[in-house]
Input
Amino acid sequence: MRVIYADVRALDYCLPGVRQWFKENGLNFNVFMKEGIELSELEHLTDPMAIRVLEQAKKRALANG
Output
């Protein structure tokens, strides 16, 4: 399962903030914007943003069956 841009937008996170968060966590923002990012690449992060984004991605996946 992947986290996609729609997941962070559903949480009302701004693009500059998300870009900065990716940079601070050593993640590739450009790849994320094109392809999303595997949940497993974020699961080790314990900050509130990571937790909320993971929850949102799982919620989206359940809603889409």
